[in-house]
Amino acid sequence: QVRLVESGGGLVQAGGSLRLSCEATGRTFHNNAMAWFRQVAGKERMFVAAINWNAASTLYADSVKGRFTISREHAKNAVYLQMNSLKPEDAAVYYCAAATPIGGIYSNTNDYYYWGQGTQVTVSS
């Protein structure tokens, strides 16, 4: 079965950094967009960052632009999220997602088919 497994979450002080990883198994996503979303309990899952199939294009939510960087490594079937200058409002469960269309780049949850189980990021003030 297709699995996306996130790792790297944890507790960090405001202003600190974390690097999230997402490794996919069961199929490759070499031709597909991948993304990161986050969700706080009781709220909607929100877009964070996306990357297209060859990493030529990226998208970022305004709230993280300049602080977060998305990247991918096809040899490991993985996508990463480098999170710098973390703020308390960044605290959430972070989810990795993979799209099914060939090519493209998307920022809506509806455009992604495969999802990881999430990794918790907690930021203390």
Structure, explained:
The structure is a single chain. With 125 residues, the chain is mainly β. 0% of the residues lie in helices and 47% in strands. It has no helices and 11 strands. The protein has strands spanning 3-7, 10-13, 18-25, 34-39, 46-51, 58-60, 68-73, 78-83, 92-98, 114-115, 119-124. Strands 2, 4, 5, 6, 9, 10 and 11 form a 7-stranded mixed β-sheet that branches. A 4-stranded antiparallel β-sheet has the order 1-3-8-7, with no helix packed on it. A hairpin with a 6-residue loop joins strand 4 (34-39) and strand 5.
Give a quick set of tags describing it:
125 residues; mainly beta; 7-stranded mixed β-sheet; 4-stranded antiparallel β-sheet; globular
**Inertia-based shape:** globular
Helix-strand category: mainly beta
User: Please, what is the oligomeric state?
Assistant: single chain
Q: How large is the share of residues in beta strands?
A: over 45%
Mean pLDDT: 97
N- to C-terminal separation?
40 Å
Write the layout of secondary structure elements.
Layout lengths: L2 E5 L2 E4 L4 E8 L8 E6 L6 E6 L6 E3 L7 E6 L4 E6 L8 E7 L15 E2 L3 E6 L1
Parallel strand pairs: 2-11
Antiparallel strand pairs: 1-3, 3-8, 4-5, 4-9, 5-6, 7-8, 9-10, 9-11
